[in-house]
Write a structure and sequence with these properties.
- By secondary structure, the chain is an alpha/beta fold.
- The chain has a single domain, classed as Alpha-Beta Complex (Spore Coat Polysaccharide Biosynthesis Protein SpsA, Chain A).
- It is built from eight helices and eight strands, in the order E-H-E-H-E-H-E-H-E-H-E-H-H-E-H-E.
- Strands 3-2-1-4-6-5-7-8 form an eight-stranded mixed sheet, sandwiched between helices.
- Helix 2 links the parallel strand 2 and strand 3.
- The longest helix has 18 residues.
- The chain starts with a strand and ends with a strand.
């Protein structure tokens, strides 16, 4: 009997310093977990050696490299990865897709917690930002506070306590249904950054029977490049979500 597959999806732009170490960490983590897995990396027009590093690891890992010649941004990178999963997954009711950042700010070990709950029957498992004693950058802290007020639309009624965190696991059938029900030429994600994470969740919630959440460690100090987080542009992107009916009735089940 074929086993279910975990698709680890990594959007990457100029992550040369960390992407190789991250890929090897995923190999070790999921190897010990004894699950079949495939890694998908989308290289979003990197100008460093990201693509070269990923191609090197293709020789030893179940790894697929997608790429864009022109920069398309985080939101579209995530969507491109998820669409590829939907096209290639053999068992959408059993297989799962996990979104993981390429800069090591998210802990690959947390993928195990997400997948275990997915295997337990959840359709979406969301990571909830846990600084675990580490410092949150001031700009990040300010935008998070403002996202709760006055931009409370993003949080009010959300099925998870942290709709901005991008580390999540999705059952592939949920992705497939969302893509099937929307117009073929209409993207799932129109926004960027944190807003893209919230927007994607809102598009998938109607197709999920059970949504759960788990703490997910975030380590900004492990990033080997300058932060791309821009408080003003992030707030503007979140403001574009105001007025939308983001959250159909649903409730998270914390674990």
């Amino acid at each position: 009997m074929e086993k279910n597959v975990i698709y680890v999806c990594i959007p990457a732009h100029n992550e040369g310093p960390t992407i190789g170490v991250l890929l090897w960490k995923i190999r070790n983590t999921l190897g010990e977990f004894s699950r079949d897995y495939k890694i998908l990396v989308h290289d979003d027009a990197s100008t460093d050696d990201t693509q070269v590093v990923v191609e090197r690891y293709q020789r030893v890992l179940p790894l697929t490299l997608l790429s864009s010649q022109d920069r398309i941004g985080y939101g579209r990178s995530v969507e491109k990865l998820l669409r590829h999963v939907v096209k290639t997954a053999s068992y959408p009711k059993r297989d799962g897709a996990v979104i993981l950042q390429g800069d090591f700010t998210e802990n690959p070990d947390d993928v195990i917690s997400l997948v275990k709950i997915l295997e337990g029957g959840a359709d979406i498992v969301a990571g909830v930002t846990d600084m675990n004693g580490h410092q949150m950058p001031l700009g990040v802290k300010i935008v998070r506070s403002m996202s709760r007020w006055p931009l409370s639309t993003v949080f009010r009624g959300a099925p998870v306590s942290d709709p901005l965190n991008g580390l999540r696991a999705y059952r592939v059938i949920v992705l497939k249904k969302a893509l099937r029900d929307g117009p073929e030429d209409e993207p799932l994600i129109r926004t960027e950054g944190w807003a893209a994470n919230a927007e994607l969740l809102s598009r998938l919630v109607p197709h999920a029977r059970r949504i759960a959440e788990v703490p997910a460690e975030v380590r900004h100090d492990l990033r080997q490049r300058g932060s791309r987080f821009r408080p003003l542009s992030t707030l503007m992107a979140l403001m574009r979500l105001r007025g939308r009916d983001l959250w159909p009735n649903s409730s998270a089940q914390g674990v």
